Amino acid sequence: IVLIGIDYLSVQRFGDPPLTHEILLRSGMVVLEGLNLAGAAPGRYELICLPLRLVGSNGAPARAVLRPLASRAS
């Protein structure tokens, strides 16, 4: 797993220390939080994520877009 995305404000409970973030980031995983997945039907997608480049920061606002993939033939 190289990326985890969640349709909530954070991957951890509000008020908890940042242990979850530290574990995920140390393992090299990319974390996308605050996604709006309400309109995403089940299926296969390509994720295109365009973060703002902020020097000296470990996070940034981003535009995340799902592009449907063609279904696989059986």
Structure description:
This protein is an alpha+beta fold and 74 residues long. The protein has one domain (3-68). Helix content is 11%, strand content 27%. It has one helix at residues 19-26; strands at 3-5, 30-32, 45-51, 62-68. The strands form two sheets. The protein has a two-stranded parallel sheet. It has a two-stranded antiparallel sheet with strand order 3-4. The longest helix has 8 residues, at 19-26. It is globular, with a radius of gyration of 14 Å. The model has no long low-confidence stretch (mean pLDDT 89).
Large-scale geometry: globular
- Total helical segments: 1
Q: What number of domains? A: 1
User: Largest sheet, order of strands side by side?
Assistant: 1-2
Sequence of secondary-structure elements = EHEEE
Question: Quick one: how many beta strands?
Answer: 4
Percent of residues in helices comes to 10-25%
Look at the structure and give the mean pLDDT.
89
The percent range for strand residues is 25-35%
- Biggest sheet character: 2 strands, parallel
Rg on CA atoms, Å: 14 Å
> Helices and strands: which structural class?
alpha+beta
Task: Please report the distance between the alpha carbons of the first and last residues.
Answer: 26 Å
Low-confidence runs: none
